[in-house]
Amino acid sequence: xxxxxxxxxxxIILLVSIMTSAMCxxxxxxxxxxxxxxxxxxxxxxxxxxxxxFLDDFTVNSTGTMPESVYFIGSQVTSIVTGCGLFTAFxxxxxxALDEQRRALQIAPAVVFVIASLAVYAFMPSGxxxxxxxxxxxxxxxxxxxxxxxVRYMGRSDALRExxxxxxxxxxxxxxxxxxxxxxxxxxxxxxxxxxxxSGAVPFFPERNxxxxxxxxxxxxxxxASCYKxxxxxxxxxxxxx
Length: 242
Known about the structure:
Blueprint: H1 2-31, H2 34-63, H3 76-97, H4 103-123, H5 128-154, H6 158-165, H7 168-191, H8 194-199, H9 210-236
């Protein structure tokens, strides 16, 4: 029963991701606002990122062999690609919203994320510490984005501060859920006995993070609301044809 619920739960996350991506694309085509294009790409990457949980299931079922460890993940390289696409898209969305034009700064976080993740994948021995550091790269990427926003808020004009202040609830929610992602990784990777996982008493899946799902749903709600407002404005007063 638990696996059935988990299956449909995953389908809901996939559905929300692809619908949000489609809404961002539609609004981007109407308004030509770049940050919506980046958001579209980000949620599309997250759709494939969540779908990776099925890949290991297919691999295990097709080979008929069980993983040697409960911390086994067979798609880490692909996860680096989807994670980089997801967080880089949202980083570029922030850069566009805050008018960050420095090309090196736009690209550097993605390069650091990929290099660091590949180093962890290649050189750290497998196990719970390996997975914690591997997925911790995502948390560090998110932390970088949030710190950058805070620094820009403190050093900008009053007009931009007022505009940024309107999104304080969304910002606070991302901070709280980002911390929840880290806490969940610590609990599941270090405090839950692997024996309980192997017995089926705890439905642990190292490639899943329910707090990260909640984080993306939170972002989808805010971005979706923004898309709805923009589309409503254009519906009431459509742009004039040239």
